[in-house]
Specification:
It is built from eleven helices and ten strands. It is α+β, with helices and mostly antiparallel strands. A seven-stranded mixed beta sheet has the order 1-5-6-10-9-8-7, sandwiched between helices. Strands 2-4-3 form a three-stranded antiparallel beta sheet. The structure holds phenylalanine.
């Protein structure tokens, strides 16, 4: 054996590998050539007895041979396995693979991010807070006295006597003001809960709260910011209408309608033939709320607004049933 050159060894081995019709034979060949007592291993051991001038070159060649044969054996094994699968008729290895189903961001997640982005560009900072909330933050500090009928407007899920699932993101106004002094410009996105369910209501939905407090802020600023927001999300042609409304924590209060994105004001089924669609609630922060957080209500003035994310998403994507967003049908969710 020792008299064989490395080239001869390779030639013999390759002949045997190519002729192997059974994985067991390949395994034996691996032992025969590359094993602990294999021919190449033996050859490598003998290299140290060779004259110094050819020793490094022979060593290198032997190592390369080892690598090459090991690769060839593996490849032959793969080919035999593929052939076996084709022979048993199970798998056609040449057919295209099955596509993997890759997830996408949920449309509500995307809409929330888009809403937040428009306000971030206007200098607002994002804050987040608890969904299981104290009655104090959800109602009391927002100027809803105990037993006030306005509490009934928000079909509340109670966790205990004084703990609720927050019915809106407005408690974040109070949480932020308790910790920080004006000037403030915040938005607070998140989940809210109300015991309500039909084609335009789900027990869990999303809002983005916004609040600005400074020494001089006006209702005009509120209109300007909300107009910029609506134009960014929809288009410049969409006009807004501020309709007087009531919230205990804002005075004056306004609900904002936008021109119907479907009929552009002519009147259709979506806007109940009014030409307008309600998208958010807003108003100037009530002095009582400032007093509750220890702000001087004669010095500071501010405005707040609460945007329904699903509502905006339904109008923007023209989806007529809010429940579609939560059925988790990937054919629906993939379209956004
Ligand atoms: N929190 C109110 C709601 O959920 C919306 C709102 C927010 C109104 C901020 C005024 C100011 O209906």
């Amino acid at each position: 054996m020792a008299h064989q050159t490395i080239e001869q060894i390779i030639e013999d081995a390759e002949k045997e590998i190519n002729g192997a019709a059974d994985p067991r034979v390949l395994n034996d060949l691996s032992v025969k050539y590359l094993g602990r007592k294999g021919i190449i291993t033996q050859y490598l051991r003998n290299v140290s007895d060779l004259p110094e001038e050819i020793r490094p070159e022979q060593g290198k060649k032997a190592n390369q041979a080892k690598e090459r044969l090991s690769k060839e054996i593996k490849q032959a094994e793969r080919q035999l396995e593929e052939k076996r699968l084709v022979d048993i008729g199970g798998i056609d290895v040449s057919s295209p693979g099955r596509p993997m189903n890759i997830g996408t961001l949920h449309p509500i997640t995307k809409m929330t991010a888009e809403i937040c982005d428009t306000f971030i560009r206007l200098g607002f900072e994002v804050v987040e807070g608890p969904e299981v909330e104290k009655d104090y933050y959800n109602f009391e500090a927002l100027n809803f006295p105990k037993d006030h009928p306005a509490r009934d407007m928000q079909d509340t899920f109670f966790v205990s006597n004084d703990i609720v699932l927050r019915t809106h993101t407005s408690p974040m106004q109070v949480r932020v003001m308790e910790k920080h002094k004006p000037p403030l410009r915040i938005i607070a996105p998140g989940k809210v809960y109300r015991c309500d369910s039909d084609i335009t209501h789900t027990p869990m939905f999303h809002q983005v709260e916004g609040m600005l407090v400074d020494e001089n802020a006006s209702f005009g600023d509120l209109k300007g910011i909300l107009t910029a927001f609506i134009h960014q999300i929809f288009d410049e042609e969409i006009s807004l209408r501020f309709r007087p409304s009531f919230f205990p924590f804002t005075e004056p209060s306004a609900e904002v309608d936008i021109l119907c994105v479907i009929c552009r004001g002519k009147g259709c089924r979506v806007c109940s033939h009014t030409g307008w669609l309600e998208v958010l609630g807003s108003g100037m922060v009530h002095p009582a709320v400032f007093e509750n957080v220890g702000y001087d209500s004669s010095k500071y003035i501010g405005f707040a607004f609460g945007i329904g994310v699903e509502r905006v998403a339904m109008l923007k994507y023209q989806v007529d049933d809010i429940r579609k967003y939560f059925e988790n049908d990937s054919r629906f969710l993939r379209q956004f």
